[in-house]
Amino acid sequence: MKMRYFEEKRGRVEIIPMIDVMLFLLVFFIIVTLQMIPDTGLSLLLPGSASADHLPHPEFTINVGKDGTIMVKGQTMTPEALTALLAGDGNPAKTTVTIAADQDTPFQAFVHVIDACRKAGVTDIGVAARPEG
User: Fold this and answer.
1) pLDDT by residue for the chain (133 residues), tens digit each?
2) Structural domain boundaries enclosing 71
3) Which of 102, 105, 121, 130 measures 20 to 30 Å from 49, CA to CA?
4) Which residues make Cβ contacts (< 8 Å) with residue 41, sequence separation at least 6?
5) Cα→Cα distances 41→7, 38, 61, 87, Å
6) What are phi and psi for residue 65, nearest 5 degrees?
7) Is 16 within the bounds of a domain?
8) How many domains does the chain have?
9) Considering the domain boundaries, does residue 112 fall inside one?
10) The domain that contains 71 carries what CATH number?
């Protein structure tokens, strides 16, 4: 008489854990893709520059309108609120900001935005411009 300690079982392919993994990957890629969509912000006529370079995707795009209004992610802000937003972002020294101002924006409004960024501790500040020629 032969004694078997383990019964022989046929291997099965479990489909439910594979579906869970595929849905997790789908959600992950959707979230990453949404983070890659640039902030559209205001419709601005950017000033032109002959030496404009393409910058990597910033964490914050700050739009400054013709009347000096500051918009970040669809919300109108004051310079003080912008400073608080940037300072509360974790490590402001590693935060990247791009300022997109209309070509008819008063320079003083642009300087207010730069001051608000500097007060928050942000040092990586880019200026949006459209390439010429």
Assistant:
1) 566 677 777 778 888 888 999 999 999 998 888 776 665 555 555 666 666 666 565 678 898 988 889 998 888 999 999 999 888 877 878 888 888 888 888 888 888 999 999 998 888 888 887 777 6
2) 48-131
3) 121
4) 61, 63, 71, 74, 100
5) 65, 9, 8, 21
6) -80, 175
7) no
8) 1
9) yes
10) 3.30.420.270
Answer whether residue 20 is part of any domain: no
Establish if 31 belongs to a structural domain. Answer: no
- What predicted TM-score, i.e. pTM, was given to this entire model? 0.59
Q: Which residues contact 100 (CB under 8 A, 6 or more apart)?
A: 41, 42, 44, 46, 61, 62, 63, 64, 128
What distance in Å separates the CA atoms of residue 101 and residue 15, rounded to the nearest whole number? 53
Q: What CA dihedral angle connects 101, 103, 104 and 107, to 10 degrees?
A: 60
